[in-house]
Amino acid sequence: MRYRIVAGSNVPIFRQIADQIGRAVATGDLKIGDSVPSVRQLARDLVINPNTVAKAYSDLVASGVLENQPGRGYFINKRRQVFTKTERLRRLDETIDLLISQSVALDFSASEVLDRVKELFTQKLSVAPE
Amino acid sequence: MRYRIVAGSNVPIFRQIADQIGRAVATGDLKIGDSVPSVRQLARDLVINPNTVAKAYSDLVASGVLENQPGRGYFINKRRQVFTKTERLRRLDETIDLLISQSVALDFSASEVLDRVKELFTQKLSVAPE
Amino acid sequence: MRYRIVAGSNVPIFRQIADQIGRAVATGDLKIGDSVPSVRQLARDLVINPNTVAKAYSDLVASGVLENQPGRGYFINKRRQVFTKTERLRRLDETIDLLISQSVALDFSASEVLDRVKELFTQKLSVAPE
Amino acid sequence: MRYRIVAGSNVPIFRQIADQIGRAVATGDLKIGDSVPSVRQLARDLVINPNTVAKAYSDLVASGVLENQPGRGYFINKRRQVFTKTERLRRLDETIDLLISQSVALDFSASEVLDRVKELFTQKLSVAPE
DNA sequence: GTGGTCTAGACCACA
DNA sequence: GTGGTCTAGACCACC
User: Fold this and answer.
1) Which of A98, A106, B79, D118 has the most CB within a 10 Å radius?
2) CA–CA gap between residue D74 and residue D35 (Å, rounded)
């Protein structure tokens, strides 16, 4: 699996990494027990600070996606929900609120936004990462 | 019109204010030529620093929602398109990308997210609060 | 590149900074991807408050000249048209109106003003300072 | 002579008034010894604060355009230069600098700006105010 | 190290 | 009364 980061993005690098791993798990590209690159290896590959990779991994451990086997590395954990349904929805709603505000500010109609959301969702999620 | 802010939120206060005004304009609660509260008045009401209100207002001036009449206050501007279509789409996409990342991270499916987006859009934009 | 500010001027410091960067981009002294000094560094150099520099930079982000990579700094953005033609013209006209008022008040003739505008344009934009 | 002010403009109201009188003198619509409306009368006509008119008039007295005959009103003074040539040019240059910065920021070429300046100058100055 | 947000408070221009 | 600019300094997130 290839990892990629977009430097100019507003999405923090650590989250880009976490998202890619999360997505790979969701699509089945990474299965339970699979290993992810070492912190230092991935930092070298992406030419970023190892702390940034470490932060991504530790967030994924906190959310139950990865587990750490000291001295061996990080591995995909068996999937479990760590957030309650309510909590997950609360966090999703927060981002959707942002989208709505932005849409209003940019004078897009609800249907324009919905179409674009659909479009980008298909584009980003149907194509499996390399 | 009543303004409200949530203190502990991840959304900065100045954006909460700008969002509320943006939405009020979108729903017609605020009309062209209407005045918004003075910087100091709103700051007193919300018990926040006037600079924070000023930042919200000046962002709205930059995006063409408000206009400023020096010494008199801020007023709802006639609606006009300030940004190019490309720019508007670029900004919208940026926010949608954030939503997609978030959805993946929270393990929501595309259709779950779409439904929720639809729901919140109707809720926030058609029904006037209070 | 050297940055300079004039303390006693009518032009606010944050605009002097933004103007200098805007001009450097126009003359090619700053190219796409170049970084500008960090907020704190420039504030130290010019012996002003970091917030003042931050305001200049964030204005330039709003107008598409700079982009911000969180935690890394500000960089010259690829040039793109952010505002609609109408909006650009509206803003230009606003400044020209100011010039006309000023000219009348100072009792300059239209041709005197035009000659001076031509002169300063060449002076400031073709010859790179220092 | 009719006086007009544009409320939504960035040009302060007191300066709009001063400019109109200055312009009328320049075009010959107001001659030496002519009276201008009383402070209160003009304030009523324009529906603005009398202080604002008073400020415009006192600026014009300071710059030698008007003279005040206490108890009788304000009159057009015999024209004299109060600013030195250098001082007038310095003030003009300041505004032109602003125009140049704005042009750069809005990505207009020097020739586009010059054409527009010519156009607006003709438009605003050739048509005599009612 | 970087920037982002917010507060408190000063001084000035404009109506 | 209104907003605009600037300073000083705190706390936070991200690299």
Assistant:
1) A106
2) 6
